[in-house]
Amino acid sequence: xxxxxxxxxxxxxxxxxxxxxxxxxxxxxxxxxxxxxxxxxxxxxxxxxxxxxxxxxxxxxxxxxxxxxxxxxxxxxxxxxxxxxxxxxxxxxxxxxxxxxxxxxxxxxxxxxxxxxxxxxxxxxxxxxxxxxxxxxxxxxxxxxxxxxxxxxxxxxxxxxxxxxxxxxxxxxxxxxxxxxxxxxxxxxxxxxxxxxxxxxx
Length: 202
Ligand code: GRF
Hints:
Elements: E1 2-8, H1 13-24, E2 30-37, H2 43-50, E3 54-57, H3 66-80, E4 84-87, H4 96-101, E5 106-110, H5 125-134, E6 138-145, E7 155-162, H6 169-200
Parallel strand pairs: 1-2, 1-4, 2-3, 4-5
Antiparallel strand pairs: 5-6, 6-7
Helix pairs in contact: 1-6, 5-6
The chain binds 5-O-phosphono-beta-D-ribofuranosylamine.
């Protein structure tokens, strides 16, 4: 069984897609051990509680220094001993010590086809505003491993989405979420869960 910790900051639609895929059986051998948010008011925490998943808030504002926040986040993760950490709309930079503690075991969903429209400052609507400003005809989403950079780790899955005439950033964001993010993030988790299962049988 793949034990997963999901880190969130906002509405949690990617988290919901994972929950729904586990219920539907399209993501196998996976259990969501905990959902952790930096934001007490994140609706993603309500989604976790509504589905019987432990939910915790570890907020930078509750600690005197960034280092103390990082320590608290690492301690919270240690409580659950996850095999995989999934960043699902998590807007806080992952500290290097966390990347080193979980090598090859942290993945992120980014709302573009990396290496386009990614890196520092490219998150949420800014990504889609940049895609529309550049005039791309195709965009999409990427699931990638997290390394010490920003959106720079090895790519796991990508899915393309058409940009349509008259698209606003909001319309495009919604289509990328519906047609790409909510498909490839559960798919990536399923792939890693099956890999763990297969390794366990070696
Ligand atoms: C999404 O646009 C996702 O691509 C990005 O963060 C946003 C939050 O989505 N990573 P949600 O919290 O999963 O609804």
